[in-house]
Design brief:
Strand content: over 45%
CATH superfamily of one domain: Immunoglobulins
Shape: globular
Number of helices: 0
Radius of gyration: 15 Å
Structural class: mainly beta
CATH architecture of one domain: Sandwich
Strand order of the largest sheet: 3-9-8-5-6
CATH topology of one domain: Immunoglobulin-like
Distance between the termini: 40 Å
Helix content: under 10%
Largest sheet: 5 strands, mixed
Order of helices and strands: EEEEEEEEEEE
Length: about 120
């Protein structure tokens, strides 16, 4: 939806999070980095499949005050839309964390218990 024709066949952008785990505790900060092509230009950011903002940099920092879960995507200059990553924010005192990245069938799933 809304993808310019010249980007339809472009390689997808790659979205990574630091720290790379979900959920994160409130009000911890998460750094989102979008790797597209090497073309110069702004990066588009999407939350829950809706355009959120455009940034000059390929990375942004987010934090939340309330618990919740968000589907994040990005589009770097000259690249297609990234696969979505679900990032949760929790105010629980204990959380079972999983990697905040796309996993494929057969991948090892590391788990982490944080308090």
């Amino acid at each position: 939806t809304g993808v310019p024709c010249h980007l339809a066949g472009a390689q997808p952008s790659q979205l990574t999070l630091d720290p790379p785990w979900t959920p994160v505790f409130l009000p911890d900060k998460v750094t989102l980095t979008c790797q597209g092509s090497s073309a110069p230009g702004p990066t588009d950011w999407y939350v829950n499949e809706q355009f959120w903002q455009q940034a000059r940099s390929n990375h942004i920092h987010i934090t939340r005050d309330l618990p919740g879960s968000y589907r994040l995507q990005c589009r770097g200059p000259g690249a297609g839309l990234s696969p979505s990553i679900t990032l949760g924010f929790s105010n629980d005192w204990l959380a079972l964390q999983v990697p905040a990245r796309v996993l494929l069938e057969g991948d090892t799933l590391p788990l982490r218990c944080r308090g």
